[in-house]
Amino acid sequence: MAEIRMMQRILASNDALAEKQLSLLNRHRVLSINIMSGPGAGKTSLVERTVQALKDRYRLWVIEGDIQGDLDARRVVAQGAGCTQLNTQGACHLDGMMLEPVFARLELEGLDLLIIENVGNLVCPAEFRLPAHYNVTLISTPEGSDKPVKYPLMFSKSDVIIINKIDLLPHVDFSIEQFSRAVRRLKPRVPIIQLSCRTGAGLREWFDWLEGALKRFHRKTARKRE
Amino acid sequence: MAEIRMMQRILASNDALAEKQLSLLNRHRVLSINIMSGPGAGKTSLVERTVQALKDRYRLWVIEGDIQGDLDARRVVAQGAGCTQLNTQGACHLDGMMLEPVFARLELEGLDLLIIENVGNLVCPAEFRLPAHYNVTLISTPEGSDKPVKYPLMFSKSDVIIINKIDLLPHVDFSIEQFSRAVRRLKPRVPIIQLSCRTGAGLREWFDWLEGALKRFHRKTARKRE
């Protein structure tokens, strides 16, 4: 019981921290998204593509969460975005405590969009709220259509779901219909976007969704200022 | 600091439990393997193939670790093996405490091989020792060759590494050479087996490795009995 109470306390203090960090983002009118997936589903590829597409019209910053190393940050910087590599030193998820030193140094003034790439893990990141307006969950077709049934929390916490690697559909056993049905059982109206970061197919729909979110957010925060 | 000490205590008591469970397996001369991977890399497909190939010559039991549901246990039972579905109810890994009630009911007498399929996660399962003689880590080619660099603990703790979905090699960016080099930097002499559970290619090498392990184990435990 002590263990469970301790876990509840950790989660509650993390929620409070995320709330505080989110207020800071709102004050500076920075939209934030938290991208989650299992290892190798294509989070960094999606970030690279997003930076390429939006960097001329929006000011972006990326936080790369990894257990160790800076492979992903290098990839993002090569696309022309600012990036902070956050190493969790073994931990299986990002949380508010880890983000505090990053937020302390981040130049939020003038920023439009913050992209947080979580640690590759379909379980734990869903338990720790981050300062994000939207949770984005990525699944790749080789992982199989049964993932929402087996990892329900991640999908329940998502505001948009991306099916990546649709170029591999002819070579793997993945049913878009079966997957979407399982997702909709957990979250009836969540948008599901099909794309391939490799070929570029479907990316337009993702960019449109993200730009729509940016515009809605800017309208909302502008009204609040008046 | 309190949090870290608590974690150390949890891991230490888990180690002791795993040790106790392993002694029980040794006494009954049951070889045990712990299969780990990220979600959708093909653990259950490997178990299905292994059951098909060995069930006529060895007596097998499978423990299926999943957050929820019994999809995987159904697949294994359909291949003709006995199976216990273990639901972690949200937890991201299996540990000794969760295995205790399973071990209490398991008929070990006459069993040759216990296969434990861990929760799909490349991070946390590596931290919790299980009653297993060998840790087997699976990676699938669509996940990318950088995984040992990004999830080093999992690969360091592995006694054999399997590259699954080699049938997808023409369609994905995966370098066997780059992957193997990264693995060998963590664990110089670990066997790396390439296969496809889908097409069956390379499976012979895995069965040979496993039968070799079974034979060595039986020779060793027979000597101890004399």
TrEMBL record, chains A, B:
GO BP term (any one): protein maturation
CobW/HypB/UreG nucleotide-binding domain location: 35-193
SUPFAM superfamilies on file: P-loop containing nucleoside triphosphate hydrolases (SSF52540)
Keyword annotations of the record: GTP-binding, Hydrolase, Metal-binding, Nickel, Nucleotide-binding, Zinc
UniProt keyword Metal-binding present: yes
Pfam families: cobW
InterPro entries for this protein: CobW/HypB/UreG_nucleotide-bd (IPR003495), Hyd_mat_HypB (IPR004392), P-loop_NTPase (IPR027417)
Domain of life: Bacteria
Entry GO MF terms: GTP binding; GTPase activity; nickel cation binding; zinc ion binding
Record-stated family: Belongs to the SIMIBI class G3E GTPase family. HypB/HupM subfamily.
NCBIfam families recorded: hypB
Descriptive protein name: Hydrogenase accessory protein HypB
Gene that this sequence comes from: hypB
